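Input chain follows. Return structure tokens only.
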Amino acid sequence: MAMTSRRRFLTTGLTLPVVVAAEPKEAPKAELVSCERIWDRAPHCAFTDLIQHNGQWLCCFREGLKHVSPDGHIRILHSDDGTVWRPWSVIEHPVADLRDPKFTRNAGGALMLTAAGAMHPPSDARHKTFAWFSSDGREWTAATQIGDSDFWLWRVHWFQGKAYAMGYATAGESVLRAYMSTDGRRFTPLGDMVASDGRPNETAMLFDRTGSALCIVRREEGTKTAHLGFSRPPYRGWEWKDLGVRVGGPNLLRLSDGRIVFAGRLYDGSQRTALGWLNPDEPSLTEFISLPSNGDSSYPGLVFHDDLLWVSYYSSHESRTSIYLAKVKLPPYSR
């Protein structure tokens, strides 16, 4: 609202109102409500995901001697309230370094966990992707290979009773391939390739009510900037646009008001775990908060709960890689 003041003009003796512009109000910003280290008991703890299942919280990540080491296994933590965390389950593979675990729920509501296995020699493949299933996150089935050998299915997304994933080649030509499954165990490629420019790899997808899909993909060659892809059923053809921002370990979450939250590693000036708004129409990615982090960090899980964005991630800013849980209050939606 504009304010008025009165100024006397000596030449006329009249007192006239003068309009003075009010100070513009600063737009509400995201607020870091809390950030706690919830695990650091292994030499290297990294690559997280987070889910709330049947009222309980589960956080998964890789433990190992180093960022890359043959002993990698998956640790799952459990919490009743998201505050006190305790060990819940460990998943190992006898001939693989398990990496980058991800949670989802299948069409029947059961938990599904996926991870890539960097295979120990001798092996017929460098990498295989595995899936496990559970009702409570504690007892899991035996590993089932999904997708093709030497294609890393980064994250599985369920939509209308089917599972979709982008897999990137880890041997031979650098290509990105789309996969589909009706049961979460047998994945069929939707063609040979959906992208190849810039060595595409890590991805996150979203589907809307109309069936339209979008996918953000990390790239490691050329400009190294992320691409955003768009597709319609049956998701065999994709249109890609350059976001102009380099990212790592991307994750996406669509809020009930339609806004899309990005989480992952940003590289401009410093490596950090950041949250941002993804605008698919421009397209653009705008950071709105950096979480306590630097260096070897990121690979977040995202859950919106009790009006807060819950973010699991890892970082090395406190001398060793550890697992963190941040809670962020987002600004209200405004057009």
